[in-house]
From TrEMBL:
UniProt: ATP binding residues: D392, K393, T394, E484, F525, K548, R582, T662, G663, D664, R773, K779, N802, D803
Gene: atp8b2
Source taxonomy: Eukaryota, Metazoa, Chordata, Craniata, Vertebrata
Cofactor(s) required, per the database record: Mg(2+)
Protein family (similarity comment): Belongs to the cation transport ATPase (P-type) (TC 3.A.3) family. Type IV subfamily.
NCBIfam families the UniProt entry points to: ATPase-Plipid, ATPase_P-type
One CC-aspect GO term: plasma membrane
Protein name from the UniProt record: Phospholipid-transporting ATPase
Principal subcellular localisation of the protein: membrane
Record-annotated P-type ATPase C-terminal domain positions: 825-1078
Length: 1161
């Protein structure tokens, strides 16, 4: 969809020719202009009004306004409706205009960014909005990528460039991209100006990790993959410059495709209110029909007798037409059962709740100077009803920062102590940011312990990290995964410093001595092998294989003499895993020259194989990685954001289910699950769903379901499922707990229509659910699945562009703001900088917002039915003539002045318990999830109370004043005395009622409640004063009637009696309920905190692997090929000489002072 042209363009494939705008324009591809705004100056008023009148309530009030303009049926002035309607429309229009202004501002800022475009052989500055598909763009270091580009060439060797994708996936690690070899030499603008290659590729889509296309140039074709693409939103890093061909622009880019369509989100209370408004309108029609029928009967039986001196007003000529007009008159009079001030008040309350979130200092992060932000004002009460949270992992639960935490060397454990080690006296090359606390390990290295030194020697050699030495001793490591960076940094601080590498050597500084090893081979990592190895030759000529990997695969490849050490190290690994640490086992093997030569020949054959190359290499790797000697194990902490385990534990106690949806691989996701305390070793079973076919996935799901429901195996008992899910995935009979881990390829089958119910059923039986290797689209599909089957309120939280579709699909979207990209924040409804703030957002602000809104609505419907139904009863005593009980000024001011501010104060400030108690008693959150505080039942109770009050307020004054007289003997049974008495009693009753309903009194509550009561008397006396009568004699007829009425003791006795009859039953009911059936909120203040600390404690000792390694395969081959090396001009010749040497002569090469500048991932 072209947001600028507003015309949809559908493609089956895309054809792009470089430097040929005329050819490309015939396909009508979208320009690079983006437009996320909805209005412009011309369309704002009509479009906004059209959108607002799509609201049932606004259309209803417009219809009433039209009726009030007809004199024959209106007994109220038009201003009683047009003033509040205009107020509502204006407030909403100003809010929409403000939101759209900021969208325009953001769009203009992005569209007017400058980019260098190659036009007619020269680079010219162009605005982003003027860039077109087929243009060639030059990017410089630290610049944002303007569109989705095919990388053509780069200043780095072999057409490599490095990008940061934080805007796309929230990850701050660098990633490498490489141009097609045939275009990598086109670095000069003159050469690029003559480039006329044509790209045929897939149409625009939202798959961030996939691209498929072909480059046709000079009668040859070259395959294109995602590794050749630079996506809009990325930032060029550590690369002087590069050139790219625009493939997708503007709304067709993957960043914008992932933004998805903005959905207008409504709360469940909004949807319920729309239903209730329709019901009330039906009730209003019924009352109008009843009174119209009464009018017809009265006019026929009684009114006909007065025709001679009280004829019908034209055009009425019979009782039926009189009844017809009476119906519409009563529709106007009784419309206040749903006053428009309800919608104004709701918006004001929501705005107040949003400001409370923005102002909450306990949700302010001083570290990144970021406050929480409510980016919408329409969803606050929905925060108090969340049942499912869908969370990203990287950048949301974790900081994506790894720290070397513990280790085991030759059976000796080393862990954190009390005092941080100062490495600077021992090692001038130490990283000052590295933290370790067990000085026994440093002493072991210092005294020359062979096992400790070999341990760190392995860490300094067995990796694919690149090193950049900016100045002497100032090392910067560029690791393709934070795991490797942490391990190499640990070795650096303990005296084994990785300095540099070439395709055939690794140079280290060991205990102050420079050593260069010949790199004979890298046995690369992949997800199946779960390990990587290097084979190096020391300067002394010793050949050794160093290996690190998962304990589950490495321990079984050890020499049999390691049994005792393996048992001890396994215990240490078990302890580390129980602490939620990421573990690796380390081993080595000495190779003879003959063994190396024989294996090297087998490796060379497998490497050159044209078929099944990967399998052949794996078999060769397996052959050499045997009979190894165990060195020890490492334990790395994947640093969680502060307070994540505690937050998850508290939210779980609030009956909120948390699912983790991540693009990470299974081991990493599971390890974080244990760190977060979502998974525990006390769980009965963790189901792993990893099938690649529909049949295998279905079988695994059914097996998991039968294990968790042995008593209902083979059935589809949804009631049992729902009950188990409410119990948090716990087997009610045995206390068993389960968890589910499912891979992306298996999830694709599980989300199919014929299997989705089985997937939901199985997931509902589990306490924790982790979906790994999922695409952005699958994240959104999982959210939609739960919305469809569970009918529950969902919340999605993430920090990258790959989370946007999930954030927009959920009822509530939360973006994590911080050092990562802001795309998720821009698409979110709420944002803050730390996952732990979610606890306060839901349990405090969300719960309070729901409570306040429910109390507000209950009271609002009550007071308006009490007010309006008096007219209904009066109709039976006024000949059904549509005469009002109150004067029109009271009718106008009742909802605007007399009762608006007290209910607003309650809706904005009310609390049942303080914020700290809300956190200590998570079970207080459950009424919102069960929708207990405002539902159809509560609504009928409210209107029943309102109708009861209206009966009392009408018939008590009517009965008493019918026979009452003044002290002078003058009867009090006149219309104005009755109207003043009823109106005064009404205002006092509803004021007392809101005083009873208010649970938390502030200065505002006192001022508004008692001030509104005082304003009623002030205004009433003013409207009945001599002054207004002299100025407007035709408007104010009843001079002094209010004063004379309220001077009568019987009137005050009547008011007091009516108030008592209305309020005493309410008080009695509440006292009985508090005594016989108290709620948790009633007892929370007196009790002790209910948050269980037990679930935050250590887990049991059952054996499991803590292995998790965020590494990717392929980098070993890239290193040994030399493609990622940048060489100083002084060393090109020496490196060329080295590359010409056979591996057997590498031991004789000298150390090269080579500088590298490369980043991975």
């Amino acid at each position: 969809w072209d947001f600028c042209s507003k015309w949809p363009v559908f493609e089956e494939e895309r054809r792009v020719r470089a430097n040929d705008r005329e050819y490309n324009e015939k396909f009508q591809y979208a320009s690079n202009c983006i437009m996320t705004s909805k209005y412009n100056i011309i369309t704002f008023l009509p479009v906004n009004l059209f959108e607002q009148f799509q609201e049932v309530a606004n259309t209803y009030f417009l219809f009433l306004l039209i009726l009030q303009l007809i004199p024959q049926i209106s007994s109220l002035s038009w201003f009683t409706t047009i003033v509040p309607l205009a107020l509502v429309l204006s407030i909403t229009a100003v809010k929409d205009a403000t939101d759209d202004y900021f969208r325009h501002k953001s769009d203009n800022q992005v569209n007017n960014r400058q980019s260098q475009v190659l036009i007619r052989g020269s680079l010219q500055n162009e605005k982003w909005m003027n860039v077109r598909v087929g243009d060639i763009i030059k990017l410089e270091n630290k610049q944002f990528v303007a569109a989705d580009l095919l990388l053509l060439s780069s200043t780095e060797p072999h057409g490599l460039c490095y990008i940061e994708t934080a805007e796309l996936d929230g990850e701050t690690n660098m990633k490498v991209r490489q141009s097609v070899s045939v275009t990598s030499e086109l670095g000069d603008p003159n050469n690029l100006a003559s480039f006329d290659g044509e790209v045929v590729c897939e149409p625009p889509n939202n798959k961030l990790d996939r691209f498929c296309g072909t480059l046709y140039w000079r009668d040859k074709k070259y395959p294109l993959t995602n590794q050749n693409m630079l996506l809009r939103g990325c930032v060029l890093r550590n690369t002087e410059a590069c050139y790219g061909l625009v493939i997708f622009a503007g709304p067709d880019t993957k960043l914008m495709q992932n933004s998805g369509r903005t959905k207008f989100k409504r709360t469940s209370i909004d949807r319920l209110m729309n239903t209730l408004v329709l019901w009330i309108f039906g009730f209003l029609v019924c009352m109008g029909v009843i009174l119209a029928v009464g009018n017809a009967v009265w006019e026929r039986e009684v009114g006909s007798r007065f025709q001679s001196y009280l004829p019908w007003d034209p055009p009425v000529d019979n009782f039926l037409f009189s009844a017809f007009l009476s119906f519409w008159s009563y529709v106007i009079i009784l419309n206040t059962v749903v006053p428009i001030s309800l919608y104004v008040s709701v918006e004001v309350i929501r705005l107040g709740h949003s400001y409370f979130i923005n102002w909450d200092q306990k949700m302010f992060c001083s570290q990144c100077n970021t406050a929480a932000e409510a980016r919408t004002t329409t969803l606050n009460e929905e925060l108090g009803q969340v049942e499912y949270i869908f969370s990203d992992k990287t950048g949301t639960l974790t900081q994506n920062i790894m720290s070397f935490n513990k280790c085991s060397i030759n059976g000796q454990p080393y862990a954190k102590g009390e005092v941080r080690i100062d490495f600077s006296p021992f090692n001038p090359l130490a990283d000052p940011d590295f933290c370790f606390y067990d000085d026994k390990l440093l002493e072991s290295v210092k005294v020359g312990d062979a096992h400790s030194q070999e341990f760190f020697r392995l860490l300094s050699l067995c990796h694919t990290v690149m090193s950049e030495e900016k100045s002497e001793g100032e090392l910067v490591y560029k690791a393709q995964s934070p795991d490797e960076g942490a391990l190499v940094t640990a070795a650096r601080n303990f005296g084994f410093v990785f300095r540099s590498r070439t395709p055939g050597t690794i140079t280290t500084t060991e205990m102050g001595r420079t050593v260069t090893y010949s790199l004979l081979a890298i046995l690369d990592f992949n997800n199946i092998r779960k390990r990587m190895s290097v084979i190096v030759r020391s300067p002394e000529g010793r050949i050794r294989l160093y290996c690190k990997g998962a304990d589950t695969v490495l321990l079984e490849r050890l020499h049999h003499c390691n049994q005792e050490l393996t048992a001890v190290t396994s215990d240490h690994l078990n302890e580390y895993a129980a602490d939620g640490l990421r573990t690796l086992a380390l081993a080595y093997r000495d190779l003879s020259e003959d063994e190396w030569e024989s294996w090297s020949e087998s490796h060379s054959v497998a490497d050159k194989a044209t078929d099944c190359r990967e399998d052949r290499l794996a078999a060769v790797y397996e052959q050499i990685e045997q009979d190894m000697m165990l060195l020890g194990a490492t334990a790395i902490e994947d640093k969680l954001q502060e307070g994540v385990p505690e937050t998850i534990a508290v939210l779980s106690l609030a009956n909120i289910k948390i699912w983790v949806l991540t693009g990470d691989k299974q081991e990493t996701a599971v390890n974080i699950g244990y760190s977060c305390k979502m998974l525990t070793d006390d769980m009965t079973e963790v189901f792993i769903i990893g099938g690649h076919t529909v049949q295998s996935v279905r079988q695994e799901l059914r097996s998991a379901c039968s294990s968790s429901y042995p008593q209902v195996s083979g059935t589809n008992d949804r009631a049992v499922t729902d009950q188990r899910w409410r119990e948090g995935g716990r087997d009610g009979g045995t206390g068993r707990e389960f968890a589910l881990v499912i891979n992306g390829h298996s999830l694709a089958h599980a989300l199919e229509a014929d299997m989705e119910s089985e997937f939901v059923s199985t997931a509902c039986a589990c306490k924790a659910v982790i979906c790994c290797r999922v695409t952005p689209l699958q994240k959104a599909q999982v959210v939609e699945l739960i919305k469809k089957h569970k009918k529950a309120v969902t919340l999605a939280i993430g920090d990258g562009a790959n989370d946007i579709s999930m954030i927009k699909s959920a009822h509530i979207g939360v973006g994590i703001s911080g050092q990562e990209g802001i795309q998720a924040v821009l698409a979110s409804d709420y944002s803050f900088s730390q996952f732990r703030f979610l606890q306060r957002l839901l349990l405090v602000h969300g719960r309070w917002s729901y409570l306040r809104m429910c109390r507000f609505l209950c009271y609002f419907f009550y007071k308006n039915f009490a007010f309006t139904m008096v007219h209904f009863w009066f109709g039976f005593f006024c000949g059904f003539s549509a005469q009002t009980v109150y004067d029109q000024y009271f009718i106008t001011l009742y909802n605007i002045v007399y009762t608006s501010l007290p209910v607003l104060a309650m809706g904005i400030f009310d609390q049942d318990v303080p914020d700290q108690r809300s956190l200590e008693y998570p079970k207080l959150y459950e009424p919102g999830q069960l929708n207990l505080l405002f539902n159809k039942r509560e609504f009928f109770i409210c209107i029943a109370q309102g109708i009861y009050s209206s009966v009392v307020l009408f018939f008590v004054p009517y009965a008493i004043l019918s026979d009452a007289t003044q002290s002078t003997g003058v009867p009090l049974a006149d219309y104005q005395t009755f109207a003043v008495t009823t109106a005064t009693a009404l205002v006092i009753v509803v004021s007392v009622q809101i005083a009873l309903d208010t649970g938390f009194w502030t200065v505002f509550n006192h001022v508004f409640v008692w001030g509104s009561l005082a304003s009623y008397f002030t205004i009433m006396f003013a409207l009945n004063s001599q002054i207004l009568f002299r100025i407007f004699p035709n408007q104010f007829h009843f001079v002094g009637s209010a004063q004379s009425t309220l001077l009568q003791p019987v009137v005050w006795l009547t008011i007091a009696l009516a108030t008592a009859i209305c309020i005493v039953p309410v008080l009695a009911f509440r006292f009985l309920k508090l005594d016989l059936k108290p709620q948790l909120s009633d007892t929370a203040e007196a009790g002790r905190p209910r948050v269980s600390e037990g679930r935050l404690g250590a887990r049991g000792g059952s054996r499991r692997s803590g292995y998790a390694f965020a590494h990717q395969e392929g980098f070993g081959e890239l290193i040994t090929s030399g493609k990622n090396m940048r060489l100083s001009s002084l060393n090109i010749s020496s490196l060329t000489l080295e590359l010409c040497l056979p591996h057997s002569l590498h031991q004789h090469t000298t150390t090269h002072n080579v500088h590298f500048f490369s980043i991975f991932l």
